[in-house]
Design brief:
The complex is a heterodimer of chains A (about 110) and B (about 110).
Chain A: E1 9-13, E2 18-23, E3 31-38, E4 45-50, E5 55-56, E6 61-64, E7 70-75, E8 84-92, E9 106-111
Chain B: E1 5-7, E2 10-13, E3 19-24, E4 31-38, E5 42-50, E6 53-57, E7 64-68, E8 74-78, E9 87-94, E10 103-104, E11 108-112
Parallel strand pairs in B: 2-11
Antiparallel strand pairs in B: 1-3, 3-8, 4-5, 4-9, 5-6, 7-8, 9-10, 9-11
Classes of the chains: A mainly beta (about 110), B mainly beta (about 110).
């Protein structure tokens, strides 16, 4: 699975969009980009995933660059409850065994 | 539908003891993975079970073991506990283990004293 690089921490004002970048310059053509988040003392929560097209769901949007070397997770209207560590992971969709490898993630602090 | 359930939520054990943690996956999910999370090492993969068979194993000593039952519930066991085993132990379930979004439980917080 490709290595990902994320900023250690970010701040965002409540109600504003939070844009979390992720670099995955060694990603291969059949590796997906997944995003999870972990709120303090809870298990990680799936947010969104994509291959090359931009994706949107009720939680967030995922923008993947055309060369697929980086992506951005967008929380359109951040709330205090979005304060968490966000993990970007690149892996094969048929990676049998759910062998997730989480890096350090980005600690997002949403401030009032 | 019910989520992934881990029991107990909190546990305190003494060094040298052994401990068993339980994970009940979402109904219909046959894959269960276990992870250890510590402040220093982050989230690390322990092992994954599918249909009662261990398919993948992380880089942990043999003191860490697991099993899965026919109803897909899984247990992990840690023998001869060490202080460094203090961690949040998380399990995740998915339908087949091939990659879809994994659903995590709340975790078991183990403290070894």
């Amino acid at each position: 699975d490709a290595k990902t690089t994320q900023p250690t921490s970010m701040d965002c004002a409540e109600g504003r969009a939070a844009n979390l970048p992720c670099n995955h310059s060694t990603i291969s053509g059949n590796e997906y980009v997944y995003w999870y988040r972990q709120i303090h003392s809870q298990g990680p929560q799936y947010i969104i995933h994509g291959l090359k097209n931009n994706e949107t769901n009720e939680m967030a949007s995922l923008i993947i660059t055309e060369d697929r070397k980086s992506s951005t997770l967008i929380l359109p209207h951040a709330t205090l409850r979005d304060t968490a560590v966000y993990y970007c992971i690149a892996l094969l969709n048929n990676n049998a065994g759910n062998m997730l490898t989480f890096g350090g993630g980005t600690r997002l602090m949403v401030k009032p | 539908k019910a989520g992934v359930t881990q029991t107990p939520r909190y546990l305190i054990k003494t060094r040298g003891q052994q401990v068993t943690l339980s994970c009940s996956p979402i109904s219909g999910h046959r894959s269960v993975s276990w992870y250890q999370q510590t402040p220093g090492q982050g989230l690390q993969f322990l092992f994954e079970y599918f249909s009662e068979t261990q398919r993948n194993k992380g880089n942990f000593p043999g003191r860490f073991s697991g099993r899965q039952f026919s109803n897909s519930r899984s247990e992990m066991n840690v023998s001869t506990l060490e202080l460094g085993d203090s961690a949040l132990y998380l399990c995740a379930s998915s339908v087949t283990g091939t990659w879809t979004e994994a659903f995590f439980g709340q975790g078991t917080r183990l403290t070894v004293v």
